Amino acid sequence: MMNIQRTIDTGSGPATAAGKPVSSPIADDKEMLRAARDLTKDISEARAGIYWTDMLGSAVVGYGSLAAAILLENTALAVFMGIVAALSLYRALLFIHEISHLHKNALPGFRTTWNVLVGMVMLTPSYMYEGVHTLHHARTRYGTAEDPEYLPLALMKPWSLPAFVLIALLAPPALLIRFGILVPLGAIFPPIRKLVWERASALAINPDFRRRPPEGDLKRRVFWQEALGMVWSWALIGSIFVLGWKPLLVALAVFSLTAVLNQLRTLVAHLWENEGEPMTVTAQYLDSVNVPPPGFLAEVWAPVGLRYHALHHLLPSMPYHSLPEAHRRLAKHLGTGSTFDGANHGGMMALVWRIARSTMRVR
């Protein structure tokens, strides 16, 4: 498994029957795990002022820029405002990741407000991540066939990478069809409801993932979020008879750009070099990616703490605003050349090239 196993091959060591060198899984770096726990205890609380200001500000800028993109007659300026809208709404949307990790008693009202202002408007309510993303962090699921958010992209064919990114362009119209057509059909025909829930109710990239029925409080939230999503999708479709096609088409174009940005970020969030075997926490960390400062661009394409994705896998409940400080402390304590340093990478293009080169070796 490429970087996920260390190969022991001295020329005189044991070998398999096929004559290949013996490989051993990466053992957990206990010093790193202890440091991650001990050095960050005092910064583990979510700060309401940061969450609310960041999320609301991103949404306001995003929707204001979207309105400008729709209303402006100057094409170049409209395109520029559309890009600003896509980037701002992308940041606002990524709070769904934080919501999936927040303790139920933390930040009262934040999840509901986010759903009303962002999740429902973009037809990506929080239930699409809640109860799904945590499976990606499960100790024995990461990188296996039971992980909804993992594909061994580095071990797939070269054409799989552009296909993986470009398919995201279809996400907004697909969500419109899901909520506007398939949800009401599912209320009438149970087999459709079952199919839509299992295959199209989670932000997953593993095509073999099947979502289990919702339980407890999530079941109630799913009902209301799907109902509101259906009504909103009908309103969007109906808007063409009142406002014409332009507003909806511009909004879909902006949301498609947002979806592609997220897919590009997903592409470089991991090295995707695991072939399905369970991994140690340290192996999971090294298969994940940090893009720390000084570069600024990573904060644009991986906002809300996601430039520290590997560190997030060590500290999944750490609030996003504390990840930069946590990274500084651990880097200083563990030093250059440590296991911790092994998950730090230079930027998106270098990561894309690394994964692309790996696919070119696949036969």
Automatic annotation (TrEMBL):
Residues 1-25 are annotated as: Disordered. One of its GO terms (biological process) is lipid biosynthetic process. Residues 77-333 form the Fatty acid desaturase domain. This is Fatty acid desaturase. One of its GO terms (molecular function) is oxidoreductase activity, acting on paired donors, with oxidation of a pair of donors resulting in the reduction of molecular oxygen to two molecules of water. PANTHER family: DELTA(5) FATTY ACID DESATURASE C-RELATED (PTHR19353:SF19), FATTY ACID DESATURASE 2 (PTHR19353). The keyword Repeat does not apply.
